[in-house]
Specification:
heterotrimer, A mainly alpha (about 350), B mainly alpha (about 325), C alpha+beta (about 600), A: about 350 residues, mainly alpha, C: about 600 residues, alpha+beta, D-Maltodextrin-Binding Protein, domain 2, 8-stranded mixed β-sheet, 4-stranded mixed β-sheet, 20 helices, 22 strands, about 20% strand
C-alpha cells in the first residue's frame, strides 16, 4: 500500500471508503459472519478495561513509556531547557562521549553535539515538547470537529446530515498527505501564525508549529466523524434515548449525558492512533521545509541529518529516530490494546 | 442493480464539484499571489500586470459579468477562473512553461515505473505472509510478523530512506544514491527506491490482510470444511483466498490512483523526476496551475476509484444493502 | 486449486524477471562520451528563449547558443567589451541620446533540426532582428521579466509599443512591423537607437543575453514552442531531441560558426581551427549536490563545486588548498571573487528598525562575520566592508568601515542609544529568511545567538523564496537576508538599490531607503561615463550608505571551483556568455586517468 499518502495512522485501518450513501464504518466489517452479536454500546466499563489492562503486561509497559514522554514534555517547558538547548559546548560536531575533554562525566555529551556544538541529548528531550504540543492540540482540533460534525449528522439527520456527508466525502477524496502539505504551505505563506507575534509568550511556545497543527488538525477529522456518526445513528434509536425524550429532556442534555459518553471509546482509540500519524507527518513536513520553528523538533533533527549522515555524523539522526520510534511503537500498541478492549466489534479477531 | 450504479454516480457529482470548489478556494483565496515571484529582479507594475495576464489571474474569480455586458451576450459570464477550473482549463505551468497536461504525461510514467513494481511485489508478498501467519495465529511466526510490522510502521519513513541511501549507496556502493535516466538505464536508478518502498510498505499491508483473512478463517464454513477433513492448505487457498479476494481487489482499485502520485518523500529524496516530486516542487515554487490541476485531478480519480470500489462490492457481495 | 497454482507461478516468474533486470542494470552505467564536456546543473530550466531568461542557468545554457551585439573579452581584467555581432563599439551622439550600431555581415543562424531552414543555415543577421527581439521583450503577452530591468522607460516609443500589445487582445494579431520611433533601421546593417535620457550602461545591457539576436522566421514557425527550440548564431546548437530539461541536455558544435571577434578579428577561420574546441557539451540534471560530488570524484564530471559537507575532504584547512589526494587525481582548484555582496537588509519604513540608526549599526557591529564564514561557508568568503564587492575599480580594502568590524562592546553601547531613541526597551525583532532548508535554519540560529549576545532578541520566520520576495517588496519585514549579484561591471548596478526613486514598494530598492543627498549624487553620476570624477562620486555615495547602514553588509562570497587538469583554458568570468567555446579537452589524458585509477 502506498503508505505515505494514506497516512500510517492505524494498524488495521481499511481504506477510507466513500460512503455518500449512508454506509457506515469501513467495508471490511460488512463481511462479518452472522454469528457475532450486534454491538452493545459499552456503558461504564472502566473497571473492566482496567482489569484487562493490569493483566496485559505489554500494555502496561507501553502506557508507562507514554507517561514518561508526557512527563518529559511537561518538564521541557521550564527555562532550564531553553538554556540547555542553546548552550554551545564546542565549535561544531562532536560524537557521543562519556566524558568532556577535561575528564569529568558530562551527561550533555552522552548523545553527541550538533553543528553548533549544542547537546543533542537536551535537544532531543526538548523535542518532546514540540511532539506533545503537536499531538495534543492537533488531536483536540481534529477530534472536536469530528465529534461535533459526527454527532450533529447522526443525531439530527435530514439535510444537515446530507451536507456533512458531502463535506467529509469531499475532504476525504483528497489524499490526506497531499491535503496537509498543500494546506501547510498555504497557511505558512500567509503568516497566519504571524498574529502570534504580538504576544511574545505564545510565540515562544508555539513558533512555526501552528502551521503544522492547523494543517493536520483541520484535515484529519473525517475518520472520527464517520465512526461517531455511525455510532450515534445506532444510539439515537435505542430505548434509553426514547425514554429520556419521554421524560421531557431536550436535545442538549440527551446529547451530553447519554450520547456523547457512549462515543468516548471511539475518541480514545482515535486519539491514540492519530497521535502516531501526527508525529510521523511532522517529520515529512519538516523535510519539506514547513512547520519550521527556531526550536529543535525531532523532524527537524532528522532532516538536518540528511547530509550529515554521508559525512559520518550519525548521532543526531539516530537519536531523533529512536525517540520517534519508541513513542510511536508504544502508542501503536496502546492503541491496539484499547481498540481490543473498547471496541467490541473487533473482539475475537485480533490476538 | 444498474439503478444502484447510476444512483451512485449521480450522488458522486456533488462530491466532485465539492473537490473542485475546495481546491479552488484553497488556492485562490488562501494562498499567496504567485505573480510576484515570477517577475524579474527589478519589478515594475507593468511587468507584474503582464505576468498576471499570462497566468489568467486578471480574470474575475467566479463569474465574468463585465465581459458579458461588454459583449452583450450571456455565455461570456462563464469566462471566469472558477469555470475554467471546472472545465479543467488551467494556464501554463509557470516554472515549466508547458501545459499542465503535457507535464503530467511526462512525469506520470516515471512515477509509475517505480510504484507499479512496488505494488505488484508488495501485494504478492503481503498476501502470502498474511495467509501464512493467519493460519498460524498465536504461534511465534504470527507474533514475529506482528512485531516487525508494527516496528516498520513506527519508524519515520524519512529515516528509513536516509539509512538505505547511506547503507546501500554510500557504504556498499551497490546502488546509486539518487538520480534518474531514460530508457534501459532507468533500471539502474529504480532498484534502490523499489527495494526500500517494498520493505517499508510490507508491514502495514500485511497487518491489514491478516485481519481480513482472520475474519474469514473464523467463519463457519471454514470450520465445517476442516471438520469434514479437508486439508488446511486447501481450505486456505481455495475457499478463504477467494473470499478474501473481494476486499483485496477493492483495496487494489483504491490504491491504483495513488500510484500516480507516487510517494512524495521517496521521489524527493531519490531525485526521481516523477509526479510526486512535481507536486512538492510546484507547491514550493507557488506554481499555482500545476498544484491546482494536480490536486483536483488526483482527488477526482481517487473519488471515482472509491465509487468503483463500492460498485464492485455491490456486484460481488449480495449481502450489501442498497439503501 | 490448480488455477491458483498457475497464477502463483506466473507471479513468481514476473518478480524473478524484475529482480534479474534490476540486478543487471545495477552494473550498467550510461555511456560516457569522450569528446564531450560533462557538467551537472541543479536548477530548473524555464525557457531557452532569450526574452524569458532571467536565471543564471538559463543564461549559461542559452549563452552558448545565442549571441548579442557585444560581449566581454575572455579572461581579460578589467572587463572590456568587444563587438560580437556588432562591427564596432557604438557611436553615441553628443547629447547621449542617439546610439548608432553597425551589424557585422555574413553571420547566419544555425538550425540543428533543419526544420525551419531545410539545410540548417538560416538568413543573415540583420539590424531588424534586434528590433524584433527587443520588441518581443516589450510584448505584453510575452510577459518578459526583463522588460523593466533592461528596456522600460529608456527607449523612445517602446512603452507605447507595450501599450499597443496590451490593447491587442489576441497575441496573434500583433503587427510586428509597426514602427517604434526609438528603434530604427535605415538599412539592414545599421541600427539607430533613440534614448529618452543618456544611459552610460547601455553597452552593458547590449551584452546581456535577453537582447540577443533572434530570428523572426523561427519565432513565427514555432510560436510558443520556441522556448524549446533555441536557434541562434553562437558556438553551439541544440537539437530538440537532445533537450530534456529534467534530465539531460546535449549541445553540439555549430558547424557554421564564424568564431569570436576578439579571437579571430574579422577573419574567416578554416573549420578545423575554429572555435569551439570541444565538440559536445553534456549537461546532467541533479537535485542534490552530493551525487554530483561523488560522480565528479569518479571522473565522470569535468567540473564541480564543493558541497559543504565534503569540504574537509577536499580542502586542507591549514593551507586552504587542495588535499594531496585530490591533487593526485589531477584536480585543480580555482578561487575567485564573484561580483556579489550578501547582506542583512533593514526595512527602512519600519518604525522600529528604520528610524533607529544606532540600532542598525549595533546589529552590524554585533555580528561576527569571520566566524560565520568559517562555520557556514568553510571560509569561502571575505568579510564585507561596503556594498561594493571586489572586482570593481572603486573597491578598496584599505577603506575601513567601523560598522562592519566585529565589536560587541561598541555594539552594546549603540544598543543603549537605540533604546533611548526607541523610547523604551526594544521589542523582539523579526528576521525573515528566504528558504527553509537546513543551512538557512542554522545560519538564522547563529544570527539569533549573536544578537542575543548584545542584548537584542530575534525571532526568525522562514518562507519560500516566492513568498519571501513578496514580503520584502511589500515591506512586511524588519530584517531580511539577501544578496545582490552585479549584472555588469559598473557600480551603478549596486547603487540603484539605494536610489530614492526605486524605493516605493515593489521597486528595486529592497530596503525602501531614501536619502536626498545620495539621490543627488546618484543622478549626477548616472549620466557620466567612467572617469575619475565619477569614481569620486561613487566613493562618496558608498560612504553615505556605509554610515546610514540600510544594509548590514555581510560578506563577499568566494567561489571555489574544481576541474580536472584535462580541461584547459577555463576562466572565472563574472559576466559574458559563450564561455565554453574557449575551453579544450585533453581527451587522451582523460582516458588515461579514468582507466588508470578510479
Amino acid at each position: 500500500m502506498t503508505q505515505e499518502l494514506q497516512g500510517s495512522n492505524s494498524t488495521t485501518d481499511a481504506p477510507r471508503g466513500a460512503d455518500a450513501f449512508g454506509q457506515v464504518g469501513n467495508p471490511t466489517h460488512k463481511a462479518l459472519p452472522a454469528m457475532q452479536l450486534p454491538s452493545e454500546a459499552p456503558r461504564s466499563r472502566p473497571r473492566e478495561v482496567w482489569d484487562r489492562f493490569r493483566r496485559n503486561k505489554l500494555a502496561m509497559l507501553c502506557f508507562v513509556i507514554v507517561a514518561i514522554y508526557l512527563l518529559v514534555g511537561m518538564c521541557s517547558f521550564s527555562p532550564l531547557f531553553d538554556r540547555k538547548i542553546n548552550d554551545s559546548l564546542a565549535e561544531s560536531y562532536e560524537p557521543p562521549a562519556w566524558r568532556s575533554p577535561d575528564g569529568h562525566i558530562e551527561p550533555q555529551r552522552w548523545l553527541g553535539l550538533d553543528i553548533q556544538g549544542r547537546s543533542v541529548l537536551w535537544r532531543a528531550l526538548y523535542g518532546t515538547r514540540i511532539a506533545l504540543l503537536i499531538t495534543i492540540i492537533t488531536s483536540i482540533i481534529a477530534i472536536s470537529i469530528g465529534v461535533i460534525l459526527g454527532i450533529v449528522a447522526g443525531y439530527f439527520g435530514g439535510w444537515l446530515d446530507d451536507i456533512i456527508i458531502w463535506l467529509y466525502s469531499t475532504v476525504s477524496s483528497i489524499p490526506w498527505l497531499l491535503l496537509v502539505i498543500a494546506l501547510a504551505y498555504v497557511i505558512q505563506s500567509n503568516d497566519s501564525p504571524g498574529f502570534f507575534l504580538r504576544h511574545e509568550r505564545l510565540q515562544a511556545i508555539f513558533g512555526g508549529v501552528t502551521t503544522v497543527i492547523l494543517a493536520m488538525g483541520l484535515t484529519d477529522w473525517v475518520g472520527l466523524c464517520r465512526l461517531i456518526r455511525g455510532e450515534v445513528i445506532k444510539l439515537r434509536d435505542r430505548d434509553f434515548v426514547a425514554a429520556a425524550r419521554a421524560m421531557g429532556l431536550g436535545n442538549g442534555p440527551i446529547l451530553f449525558r447519554h450520547i456523547l459518553p457512549n462515543t468516548t471509546h471511539l475518541i480514545i482509540i482515535t486519539f491514540s492512533l492519530g497521535a502516531v500519524g501526527y508525529v510521523q507527518v511532522e517529520v515529512v513536513l519538516a523535510f519539506l521545509g514547513l512547520g519550521i520553528t527556531d526550536k529543535p523538533s525531532w523532524g527537524r533533527m532528522i532532516d538536518d541529518a540528511k547530509l550529515e549522515l554521508l559525512r559520518g555524523v550519525w548521532w543526531q539522526a539516530t537519536v531523533a529516530t529512536a525517540m520517534i520510534f519508541v513513542l510511536c511503537l508504544a502508542l501503536n500498541m496502546l492503541g491496539d490494546f484499547l481498540r481490543d478492549a473498547l471496541d467490541p466489534r473487533l473482539r475475537g479477531v485480533d490476538s | 442493480m444498474w439503478a444502484y450504479v447510476v444512483r451512485k454516480f449521480l450522488l458522486t457529482i456533488p462530491i466532485l464539484l465539492g473537490i473542485v470548489f475546495l481546491t479552488f478556494v484553497l488556492f485562490k483565496y488562501i494562498a499567496a499571489d504567485p505573480a510576484v515571484a515570477y517577475a524579474g529582479k527589478l519589478k515594475s507594475p507593468e511587468e507584474i500586470e503582464a505576468i498576471r495576464h499570462k497566468l489568467e489571474l486578471d480574470k474575475p474569480r467566479w463569474i465574468n459579468i463585465h465581459e458579458a455586458c461588454a459583449q452583450q451576450s450571456f455565455w461570456p459570464v462563464f469566462n471566469s477562473q472558477f469555470f475554467d477550473a471546472l472545465r479543467f482549463h488551467y494556464p501554463q505551468s509557470i516554472r515549466y512553461q508547458e501545459s499542465v497536461w503535457r507535464l503530467f504525461a511526462r512525469k506520470a510514467p516515471v512515477s509509475l515505473a517505480i510504484q507499479f513494481p512496488v505494488f505488484i511485489i508488495e501485494l504478492g508478498l503481503q498476501l502470502a505472509i498474511a495467509l501464512y501467519v493467519a493460519s498460524h495465529r498465536g504461534r511465534p511466526a504470527d507474533y514475529l510478523a506482528t512485531i516487525l510490522a508494527v516496528l516498520g510502521m513506527s519508524i519515520p519513513a524519512l529515516s528509513i530512506y536516509m539509512a538505505a541511501q547511506w547503507f546501500f549507496g554510500a557504504c556498499l556502493r551497490w546502488f546509486p544514491v539518487a538520480g534518474w535516466d531514460t530508457g534501459f538505464y532507468a533500471l539502474h536508478f529504480m532498484a534502490l527506491p523499489i527495494l526500500v518502498s517494498v520493505i517499508m510498505g510490507l508491514g502495514g499491508g500485511t497487518r491489514f490482510y491478516r485481519t481480513i483473512v482472520l475474519e474469514e478463517i473464523n467463519a463457519d464454513y471454514v470450520r465445517t470444511a476442516r471438520a469434514k477433513g479437508v486439508q488446511r492448505r486447501e481450505v486456505l487457498l481455495t475457499h478463504v483466498l477467494r473470499n478474501v479476494m473481494i476486499p483485496v481487489v477493492t483495496n487494489t482499485i483504491v490504491a491504483l490512483p495513488l500510484l500516480f502520485t507516487g510517494a512524495l518523500l521517496l521521489e524527493r529524496l531519490f531525485q526521481i523526476p516523477g509526479f510526486g516530486a512535481l507536486l512538492v516542487d510546484a507547491i514550493g515554487d507557488q506554481d499555482q496551475p500545476v498544484v491546482m490541476a494536480l490536486v483536483t485531478v488526483t482527488s477526482i480519480i481517487y473519488c471515482l476509484a472509491l465509487v468503483a470500489t463500492d460498485v464492485c462490492y455491490a456486484i460481488v457481495d449480495p449481502r450489501v444493502s442498497l439503501k | 486449486m490448480r488455477k491458483v497454482k498457475w497464477i502463483f507461478i506466473a507471479y513468481l516468474a514476473f518478480v524473478a524477471l524484475l529482480v534479474i533486470a534490476l540486478g543487471a542494470a545495477m552494473h550498467a552505467t550510461p555511456p560516457h562520451d569522450s569528446q564531450a564536456m560533462h557538467t551537472a546543473y541543479m536548477a530548473n530550466i524555464k525557457s531557452l528563449d532569450p526574452p524569458e531568461i532571467n536565471d543564471d542557468l538559463g543564461n549559461g545554457l542559452a549563452g552558448q547558443i545565442f549571441e548579442c551585439l557585444y560581449n566581454y573579452k575572455y579572461d581579460i581584467r578589467p572587463y572590456e567589451l568587444f563587438p560580437e555581432l556588432a562591427e564596432e563599439l557604438p557611436e553615441v551622439s553628443g547629447d547621449g541620446l542617439t546610439v548608432t550600431i553597425k551589424i557585422r555581415p555574413g553571420i547566419h543562424y544555425y538550425d540543428p533540426d533543419k526544420v525551419v531552414f531545410p539545410d540548417g543555415i538560416g538568413p543573415e543577421v540583420a539590424a531588424g532582428d534586434f528590433v524584433y527581439s527587443w520588441k518581443r521583450i516589450a510584448d505584453f503577452h510575452l510577459a518578459s521579466p526583463l522588460y523593466s530591468q533592461l528596456l522600460q522607460g529608456r527607449i523612445v516609443g517602446l512603452d507605447g509599443w507595450w501599450d499597443y500589445t496590451k490593447a491587442t487582445r489576441d497575441a496573434a494579431e500583433i503587427d510586428w512591423d509597426k514602427p517604434v520611433e526609438g528603434l530604427q533601421t535605415p538599412d539592414s546593417r545599421t541600427l539607430v537607437i533613440k534614448l529618452t535620457e543618456p544611459y552610460p550602461q547601455l553597452n552593458f545591457n547590449l551584452a546581456y543575453l535577453p537582447t540577443a539576436a533572434v530570428c523572426r522566421k523561427v519565432v513565427e514557425h514555432y510560436r510558443d514552442e520556441v522556448r524549446r527550440h533555441p536557434i541562434g548564431t553562437g558556438a553551439y546548437g541544440l537539437r530538440r531531441a537532445d533537450y530534456e530539461p529534467d534530465q539531460r541536455i546535449v549541445m553540439h558544435a555549430n558547424p557554421i560558426y564564424r568564431g569570436r571577434q576578439d579571437v579571430d578579428g574579422g577573419a574567416v577561420v578554416p573549420p578545423d581551427q575554429r572555435l569551439p574546441h570541444i565538440q559536445h557539451l553534456d549537461y546532467y540534471f541533479f537535485r542534490e549536490d552530493l551525487p554530483i560530488w561523488l560522480l565528479f570524484q569518479q571522473g565522470y564530471f569535468d567540473t564541480a563545486g564543493i558541497p559543504k559537507d565534503s569540504f574537509a575532504k577536499a580542502i586542507k584547512i591549514s593551507t586552504g588548498d587542495l588535499t594531496e589526494e585530490m591533487r593526485g587525481k589531477g584536480i585543480v582548484l580555482t578561487k575567485s571573487t564573484a561580483a556579489e555582496t550578501a547582506y542583512f537588509g533593514f526595512n527602512m519604513t519600519d518604525p522600529v528598525v528604520g528610524k533607529n540608526k544606532p540600532l542598525r549599526q549595533a546589529i552590524s557591529m554585533g555580528f561576527d562575520r569571520a566566524t560565520y564564514i568559517r562555520i557556514f561557508l568553510n571560509g569561502r568568503g571575505i568579510p564585507a566592508i561596503g556594498p561594493i564587492p571586489p572586482g570593481f575599480p572603486t573597491f578598496d580594502t584599505k577603506r575601513g568601515n567601523p560598522y562592519t568590524k566585529f565589536n560587541p562592546d561598541a555594539a552594546r553601547q549603540q544598543v543603549a542609544q537605540a533604546i533611548e531613541i526607541n523610547g523604551g526597551p526594544l521589542p523582539s525583532l523579526q528576521l525573515l529568511m528566504g528558504d527553509t532548508d537546513t543551512q538557512t535554519r542554522q545560519e538564522a540560529e547563529f544570527f539569533t545567538s549573536q544578537m542575543k549576545n548584545i542584548g537584542i532578541n530575534i525571532h526568525t520566520e522562514y518562507r519560500t523564496w516566492a513568498r519571501f520576495q513578496e514580503m520584502v517588496d511589500n515591506r512586511q519585514t524588519q530584517i531580511f537576508q539577501l544578496g545582490w549579484v552585479a549584472d555588469y561591471p559598473d557600480e551603478q548596478d549596486f547603487f540603484q538599490l539605494f536610489y530614492g526613486k526605486n524605493a516605493p514598494a515593489g521597486g528595486s530598492n529592497p530596503c525602501g531607503y531614501v536619502n536626498p543627498e545620495f539621490d543627488a549624487l546618484y543622478e549626477k553620476a548616472s549620466v557620466m561615463q567612467r572617469s575619475s570624477q565619477r569614481d569620486e562620486l561613487y566613493r562618496k555615495m558608498e560612504q553615505i550608505v556605509m554610515d546610514d547602514c540600510p544594509w548590514a553588509t555581510l560578506l563577499y562570497p568566494l567561489v571555489y571551483a574544481l576541474h580536472y587538469d584535462w580541461l584547459r583554458h577555463t576562466s572565472d568570468m563574472d559576466y559574458g556568455y559563450g564561455l565554453r567555446q574557449h575551453m579544450a579537452l585533453g581527451a587522451s589524458l582523460r582516458e588515461e586517468r579514468l582507466a588508470g585509477g578510479k
